[in-house]
Design brief:
InterPro entries: Gate_dom, Spore_IM_YlbJ. Pfam families: Gate (PF07670). This is Sporulation integral membrane protein YlbJ. By secondary structure, the chain is mostly helical. It has one domain. The chain is about 85% helix and about 0% strand. The longest helix has about 45 residues. The chain is globular and about 60 Å long.
């Protein structure tokens, strides 16, 4: 019965999208172009270098090397192997869905057990600093100090989620992990690196080509999700479903003593973070605390668009989606609490100091992120098209050789 209801739900959703596209072709086209611009200008050029570098580091055994060295830190703290430190760092630096992508790769390489992979993916998908500081704080709110509050709440909350998730199936620990924890040395780390490199018989050119192709394939999938969810969010607004659900969210916000005007932006942000943050910035509030709380919740939830990307990436493995989704709800609660606790020391006090003493520093801090965003908007599409062209050349040469 459950399977039949799911089939009916999927079919109904697809039918709704098809009818809505026919009824609102102009609005759907604009939403599609908006998602495409976001992908070509920001997502593709910002994630591509990280994806390619990660593939090379995995192929050359560097992740194995890092895993042995960081085992004493990651095992007691998060109950995962040391290789998880690489995923954690790359996830924070490059943003979602890098954590899911790298976790799936390590699971396929059998460097993680199923349970360890589910723990790892639950707290390594986070927004990157450029998005928090550049797009949201500076781009929408013109307030770099807000970015510091959001970043500390976001990354701190994700870390606490990882600590909580260490107790998920805590008795499920492989004998290999126990052995690795007892025998840690720099020489062993180098041996693991060398063994991994020698086991991979691909020449250097093949390794680099595979890294480029795999990264492009993943980013094309991500681009499809971004465009479709941009269109889907717009269609929900046009048919009135967004207003119905936002009315329900208004009740919840009233219970939390938060302004009900944030209901519609919050709903939009739960689907697509950028749209929700932009709608919040259009509101006129003198008190920034409610805005910071809702932004932290939206960032922590990742948005259904990112969650769909994660689900698609881990579908090729035995990693379950449920622990990741539970972690997102937990992250929402923790990030909101951290925002409330840190609002005065990290935002109000710092804002007063900047306005009274060093306003020039605040301006320069804002300028840095504005320049980065402008650079991506200018050269991002060029890098995207060039990389896709290079990927086509690599594939064409491989088919010719075959």
């Amino acid at each position: 019965m459950k399977a039949k209801l799911m089939s009916l739900g999927f079919a109904g959703t697809a039918f709704f999208i098809a009818i809505s596209l026919i009824k609102f072709p102009d609005e759907a086209l604009k939403a599609s172009i908006r998602g495409l611009n976001m992908w070509t200008e920001v997502v593709f050029p910002s994630l591509l270098p990280f994806f390619i570098t990660a593939e090379l580091l995995i192929g050359f055994g560097v992740v194995k090397f890092i895993g042995v060295l960081f085992e004493p830190i990651m095992r007691p703290l998060f109950n995962i192997p040391g290789a998880g430190s690489f995923v954690w760092a790359m996830g924070m630096a490059s943003g979602y869905p890098s954590g899911a992508k790298l976790t799936a790769r390590l699971r396929q390489e059998e460097q993680l057990t199923k349970t360890e992979a589910e723990r790892l993916v639950s707290f390594t998908n986070s927004s990157n600093p450029l998005f928090i500081f550049g797009a949201i704080s500076v781009g929408f709110f013109h307030d770099a100090q807000l970015g510091i509050l959001l970043a500390v709440s976001h990354y701190g909350g994700n870390t606490l989620v990882g600590v909580c998730m260490r107790f998920y199936k805590r008795k499920d620990r492989s004998k290999r992990s126990i052995h690795e924890r007892r025998s840690i040395s720099l020489s062993k780390a180098f041996r693991e690196l060398h063994h991994t490199r020698m086991k991979d018989e691909r020449p250097l050119g093949k390794v680099f080509g595979d890294a480029v192709i795999q990264s492009i394939q993943t980013l094309l999938m991500i681009g499809g999700f971004i465009i479709m969810f941009s269109v889907f969010t717009k269609l929900l607004f046009l048919v009135g479903i967004s207003q119905m659900i936002s009315n329900f969210l208004e009740i919840i916000l009233n219970m939390m003593t938060l302004p009900p005007e944030l209901a519609m932006p919050m709903f939009s942000g739960l689907f697509e973070i950028t749209l929700g943050a932009q709608m919040i910035s259009d509101l006129d509030f003198s008190n920034m605390l409610p805005i910071a709380i809702i932004l932290s919740i939206i960032l922590a939830f990742n948005g259904f668009s990112v969650q769909a990307q994660v689900a698609s990436i881990i579908a090729d493995t035995d990693i379950r989606f449920a622990p990741y989704f539970f972690a997102r709800l937990l992250h929402c609660v923790i990030a909101a609490l951290l925002t409330i606790i840190l609002f005065k020391p990290l935002y109000l006090n710092e804002q007063a100091t900047q306005f009274q003493n060093i306003p020039v520093f605040a301006y320069e801090k804002t300028q840095i992120w504005s320049v980065l965003l402008e650079w991506l908007s200018t050269f991002g599409p060029i890098l995207t098209i060039s990389t896709l062209f290079i990927g086509c050349i690599i594939l064409a040469r491989r088919f010719r050789i075959r």
